[in-house]
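Comment on both lines for my students:
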Amino acid sequence: MEEQMNEEGQQEQQMEQSGEGAGDSGAPELGVFYSGLSDEYQKDPTFEKFKNADFDTIAKTLVNQEKLVGREKIARPKADDPDDVARFYRELGVPESADKYELDAPSEWASEIGYKQDVFKNIAHEAHLTPEQAKLVEQGYLKDAQATMQRYEAQQKEARGKAEQALRSELGEDFEPKMTTAEMVADQFAKSPEVAGRIKSMIKTDPEFAATMIEIAGQFAEHRIGTFEAKASNLTRSSAQAKINEIRNNLNHPYWNNVDPDAHNAAVEEMFKLEQIAEFGR
C-alpha cells in the first residue's frame, strides 16, 4: 500500500514538472518558462514578452525565428569594425568586389540607350546586394526602362503620323517636294550631321516648325540666298508645271536676268529639270 502511494506521488510530481494536470483543462501553467529563468535573463527585454507565455507560444516563436534567420546563424557585425562588417556581408553572399557579379550581358537596345552595366555593378556593390538581388534589380530596371522606351517610341510615331497628316492636308501635292527642300536647308546649314538630324526630326514631328522651315527653304530657293541650291526632286508633273509657271511669271527671277551669272545658270538648270519632270515625269 505504501509502495502504491509512493508510485502515485511520483507520477503527480512528473505531471507537474511537464505541465500536465495544471488547471481543469490540463494546459501547462502560464509563466513557467519565464519564472524558471535566472534574474539576469528575466531582466533582458528579449524574454519579457514570454513572461506570461505558455510553452507552445515559445516554441512557435523559436520556429518562426529559425525560418526567418535560416539554419546557419550569421553573427551581427560590430559597426565600428570595418573588417567585421566586411566579414558579415561576405557571409551573406555579397561579392568582395563589383566585378565579381555575374550578370547577363545587356541586350542590344540597352546598349543603344547607353546603359552601363559596370556602373550598375558598382552601385549594387555599394548597396551590399547579393548576386541574386543584383540580378533581380537589374532585370526589373531594364524591363521598366524598355517599357518606357516603347511607350515613348509609340508616342513619337503617333505624333509623326498626326504631323504628317496635317502637313499633307495643308500642302497637298507639294508636300513631298517642300519637305525635301526644308530638309536640304538643315543639311546645308546645320553645324553637324547630328544637329541636322534633330532638325529634320522636328520637321517631321512639329507642324509649326516644319511650316517655318518650308517658308525659309522657299526663300532660299527663290532668291538664292547664300550658296544653297534648291534642286527639283520628288516632284509630280503638275507640281513641276506649277513651278515652271511661277518662274515664267516672275520677271525678277534669276532665270530672266544675268545680273548674277551663277544664279542665272542655276535657274536655267532648274528650269530644264522642271521641264523634264513636267513632260516625262522624271
Summary: Residues 1-27, 223-232 have pLDDT under 50 and may be disordered. The radius of gyration is 43 Å. The first helix runs from residue 2 to 18. Residues 231-282 form one domain.
